[in-house]
Amino acid sequence: MSWHVAEEDLRAYARGELRPPALWSADAHLTSCARCREVLAEVSDPVALDAGWDRLDTELDAPRAGLLEGLLVRLGVAGHTARLLAATPVLRGSWLGAVVAVLLLSVGAGHAVRGGEFPTPFLALAPLLPLAGVALSYGPVLDPTYEMTVVAPMHGFRLLMIRTVAVLAVVLGLNGLATLALPAYGLRALAWLLPALALTATGLALTPRLGPVLAPSLVGGAWLGLLLTADALRTGADVPLAPFTLAGQGVAATVAALAAGLLFLLRDRFDLCQGRAV
């Protein structure tokens, strides 16, 4: 190769002062000329060069905000909180798709029953979805980001509440949309809401003692057992199950309030849960 970039041009190139078309010629030539690259390294400021590499490394290593994280930031959520929410395992397409499918099946079952009956399949299943969602969002067994949360400088209870609010907002919103698909039942189609809050709060309150897998599993099993018992005791197919009567709704509200109070009292124990595999 007979032509090389002049040393003065290389100095200007290193300072970022070389202008087109000489800049374009230098760029094209440097990619194929080892000699000019050696001269460029000699005339470049090593401090500026190291700073440039540091900036490049930082830019390449910086995590890129996803769609959900960017949307949350635009809505006013703090950047670090938005990242925690975006990393919540259950806020993913596969899990949300499964929830939507289950709700559609439940709504279909509700439409299939006779007009005088309760949409029992939907009302029985809807309270379990937020309970399962919260369980899947926290703990070493099912959370792929658990190791990072253990070493994060954040109160375990605060992390749990952030993820719980995110899960409840999504699941309760989907349940609410499913309820709109059952207009013939009126307010009776909302009978899942208080049991859902009661189950979720109870599962959270039992987590420090039983762990994030066993606690919601027992609560969910107890709910199914209660429904089976209520079904065995009711006097007719057109009579609602006890948890969905006015008295049952009052009991659910009381359980939710007591469990929320117990959860607040036990909030410091969630730091201990983060430090051990529960």
Topology, number of strands: 0
- SSE order in H/E notation? HHHHHHHHHHHHHHH
Oligomer: single chain
Unreliably modeled segments:
none
Structural class: mainly alpha
- By DSSP (H or I, 4+ residues per run), the number of helices equals 15
Based on Cα principal axes, name the global outline: elongated
Helices and strands in order:
Elements: H1 7-15, H2 22-30, H3 34-43, H4 46-61, H5 67-74, H6 79-86, H7 93-112, H8 120-125, H9 128-136, H10 146-151, H11 156-180, H12 193-210, H13 214-233, H14 246-265, H15 269-274
Helix pairs in contact: 1-3, 5-6, 7-11, 9-11, 9-12, 9-13, 12-13, 12-14
Give a description of the structure.
- The longest helix is centred in the middle third of the chain and has 25 residues, at 156-180.
- The model has no long low-confidence stretch (mean pLDDT 76).
- It is built from 15 helices and no strands.
- It has helices at residues 7-15, 22-30, 34-43, 46-61, 67-74, 79-86, 93-112, 120-125, 128-136, 146-151, 156-180, 193-210, 214-233, 246-265, 269-274.
- It is an all-alpha fold.
Task: Describe this protein with a few key phrases.
mainly alpha; elongated; 68% helix
Brief rundown of the structure:
Helices cover 68% and strands 0% of the residues. The protein has helices spanning 7-15, 22-30, 34-43, 46-61, 67-74, 79-86, 93-112, 120-125, 128-136, 146-151, 156-180, 193-210, 214-233, 246-265, 269-274.
